[in-house]
Write a structure and sequence with these properties.
alpha/beta, eight-stranded parallel β-sheet, TIM Barrel
Length: about 425
């Protein structure tokens, strides 16, 4: 890693960007699909040590190509959000190997364009708590290395059709949550606003006409978006993104990467008002047994509190997020066409098999219509996995007709 060289690269890119006018028209987006991050999830060191794993990059390209993407276009999607984990690129550092991965990013984007879809290239950093290449590191000690990487990826995308190609330089920055929610004099200062300006400058310098997708801090949610002053960016060629997994106790129930006790809770219905007393007690008892088996002891009070908090949430807490985004945009004179609900979805599987499918579909429909009500584009999460909108165990990754109906897509075959 060479932060000093990164600083020089940043200065050069910013000088280059000052010589080019910025295009003012962003692509028209409506209905989007998030592709996979990884099919086979490995630690970054394992990726680098396994021969051929990063060829092509990322590994979903072995399963999804132009034919599949054309099918999603026929289903009714008009754009894709393509996640690319920057972890291995950061680990490799500048050089031929990193350049090869960046070339693969452009190649994947070109396949999407050839399939007739608009493409968002998403540098999708993820938490890696047991490694040194996760999002907390990216927005921390790796920031001097990350900015030049942003510039190199943006430069590689420069020249692709700007009316159908967008670049999202960082997924879900994890910082500033505490600063946002602490109104005391001892609250830490927010770091992301300055970092966002810096990152935007690097990306814009490297790709003067490329539309950019930017988000707020604290996991890219609505609270972070509302803290952004877009006047500091002064760029009409930006789409502002927010993610919504509200209500979180429903969308992330049973996820083993969430904290206790939520990771032991499953089969909560949607919306919150559908959870009656009897069902709540049954779900709490089942969660206590799972916690007991996993940890050797259970915390019934914590489980009950989590379930009670979910029951107290408004039924429209998901769609209300898009209303808040629309209000933020109107306040700053940003048209709704420059907003995107970049991720939404709900877990409908657990270790015991698929569950709550109908509830997840109702949730997806609520979020989708909530965004559309305000003229906001959306991208559902995701192609496969615990929040999949494709048929389970289908190697062709064909859309689930029920998910298509929830998303309002008319092209999906029954």
């Amino acid at each position: 890693m060479q932060p000093a060289r990164g600083g020089l690269a940043l200065a050069a890119l910013m000088l280059l960007g000052a010589q080019h006018p910025v295009a003012a028209e962003t692509p028209d987006l409506a209905r989007g699909l998030n592709l996979e991050i990884w099919v086979e999830w490995l630690a970054v060191d394992d990726m680098l040590s396994r021969e051929g794993f990063l060829t092509p990059y990322p590994d979903w390209r072995r399963f999804v190509g132009k034919e599949e993407l054309e099918r999603y276009r026929a289903d009714g999607f008009d754009f894709l959000r393509m996640p690319f984990d920057p972890g291995p690129m950061l680990a490799l550092g500048p050089g031929a190997d990193q350049d090869a991965l960046i070339a693969d990013i452009r190649s994947a984007a070109e396949i999407g364009l050839e399939a007739g879809l608009t493409v968002i290239v998403d540098l999708h950093s993820i938490p890696r708590p047991d490694e040194v290449w996760g999002t907390d590191d990216v927005v921390g000690r790796l920031w001097p290395d990350y900015l030049p990487l942003v510039g190199r990826v943006a430069a590689a995308l420069d020249g692709l059709p700007p009316d159908r190609t967008l670049f999202e330089p960082l997924n879900e920055p994890t910082l500033d949550c505490e600063a946002m929610w602490d109104d005391s004099p001892e609250a830490p200062p927010e770091r992301w606003p300055d970092m966002l300006v810096e990152m935007h400058a690097v990306a814009r310098a490297a790709a003067p006409d490329l539309p950019l997708v930017l988000s707020g801090a604290c996991w890219g949610g609505i609270y972070g978006l509302e803290r952004i002053d877009p006047g500091r960016i002064e760029d009409d060629n930006v789409v502002w993104s927010y993610h919504s997994y509200d209500p979180f106790p429903f969308t992330h129930q049973s996820a083993n990467w969430t904290g206790s006790p939520l990771k032991y809770i499953s089969r909560l219905p949607y919306p919150p008002s559908a959870l009656d007393n009897v069902t709540a007690m049954e779900r709490a008892a089942a969660a206590a047994l799972r916690m007991q088996a996993a940890e050797g002891s259970a915390d019934p009070a914590a489980i009950a509190a989590e379930i009670a908090a979910y029951r107290a949430m408004p039924d429209d807490s998901g769609p209300a997020v898009s209303a808040r985004a629309a209000a933020w945009a109107a306040q700053h004179g940003i048209p709704a066409r420059r907003l995107i609900l970049g991720e939404f979805g709900a877990i409908h599987t657990d270790p015991e098999g698929r569950f709550a499918g109908d509830d997840a579909l109702r949730y997806i429909a609520d979020q989708r219509t909530g965004a559309e009500r305000h003229g906001i584009a959306w991208a559902v999460w995701s192609l496969t996995g615990e929040m999949a909108v494709t048929l389970p165990d289908d190697p062709r990754r064909v859309m689930d007709p029920a998910a298509c109906a929830a998303l309002g897509l008319a092209g999906c075959a029954p």
